[in-house]
Amino acid sequence: SFALSRSNFISQISLLSFAAQRSNASNTECNASSTDKEATPPLSQMYDAQYPGTAVQRLKAVHERVKVIAADGTLNGPWEEARRRILWAGGLRDLPDAAPGAGYTGHSFNDWNHVDLTTMNDEIADNQNDGSVKGIAVGNRLGNGIRVASLPELGSGGSWSTCAMGCNQDPPNDVAHIQFRSRIAFKLVWVPNEQYDTFVLVDDDGKLLAKGKPSDGPDALPHLRERMMNFKIMEGSKYASVAEQIAKET
User: Fold this and answer.
1) Which of 16, 35, 128, 245 is the most buried (most CB within 10 A)?
2) Residue 31: pLDDT above 50?
3) What average pLDDT does range 130-141 have in this prediction?
4) Does 11 score more than 90 pLDDT?
5) What is the per-residue pLDDT across 208-245, written as a single tens digit (0 to 9) for each?
6) Distance between CA 249 and CA 104 in Å, rounded?
7) What pLDDT shows up at residue 37?
8) Handedness of CA 133, 156, 184, 215 (dihedral sign)
């Protein structure tokens, strides 16, 4: 359920209005990509028939890195350190000073929407939104930013923190699955407890990969409205199940 504390009550109407405003702002930066890499294991290990845009080997490498950050304690440290480790696990550089569209990742996992770590094949990194992903700008050119920001050591293809809105549909109608025809490696979801101060990373099936509660508290996190809206767009989907269960237990 979408639980709100009395002290921080915000109506669903206000949230939806906030989402619309933020969606307009984020339309310019919902970016994805590619890196040139050496080849290649057998086709059976590289190809996803349902989502053929997935860089499968890169996705597997991301999952191995997520295991590292799930175990080393950094997700329970200061938020900015945790966020940088999430970027590293996802195969992205920390580029807070780059220009939007030129590799900027300061927004990644720092708002309600740019929370899907997507690994896409080189040949589809320049795919554009033809209007199928609702609420995202037509075009949504992300390829150059992906190429700049992607860490090459995770394998061929690229990584990006794509927009999650639309993920509560079945099948998901978001940037990863529609524009890039790719699975997500993971999604960051804020847990709907009283302070929304805990997050989980879940995979494309909604299964738990990692959990964190940053040590510097709610004031250091993305704004409360961002965290609340993040959960709201997941609510009712497979991606919300783990967060909902944790909220019930706390």
Assistant:
1) 35
2) no
3) 48
4) no
5) 999 999 999 999 999 999 999 999 999 999 999 999 99
6) 37
7) 44
8) negative
- Is pLDDT of 101 > 90? no
Residue 249: band (very low, low, confident or very high) from pLDDT cuts 50, 70, 90: very high
Q: What is the largest CA-CA distance in the chain?
A: 56
DSSP 159: E
Q: What gap in Å lies between CA 214 and CA 181, rounded to an integer? A: 33
CA–CA distance, 148 with 94 (Å, rounded to integer): 11
The CB density around residue 143, as the number of other CB atoms within 10 Å, is 21
**Type of residue numbered 11:** S
Q: Where are the alpha helices (DSSP H) in 98-168?
A: 143-149
Strands across the sheet containing 208-212: 158-163, 114-120, 184-190, 199-202, 208-212
Whole-Å CA distances, 108 to 61, 95, 117, 146, 151: 19, 10, 9, 12, 15
Per-chain mean pLDDT for the chain: 84
Cβ neighbours for 25, distance < 8 A, ≥ 6 positions apart? none
* pTM (two decimals): 0.81
pLDDT digits (tens, 9 = 90+) for 102-115: 999 999 999 999 99
State which amino acid sits at residue 187: K
Contacting residues for 193 by C-beta, under 8 A, at least 6 apart: 3, 246, 247, 250
Q: Which two tokens stand for residue 191?
A: 């847990």
Q: Is 77 exposed, middle or buried (0-12, 13-18, 19+ CB in 10 A)?
A: middle
Q: How many CB atoms lie within 10 A of CB 58?
A: 27
Phi, psi (deg, nearest 5) at residue 151: -80, 125
Closest alpha carbon to 32 in 200, 183, 244 = 183
In eight-state DSSP terms, residue 230 is H
CA-to-CA distance for 15 and 26, rounded, in angstroms? Answer: 16
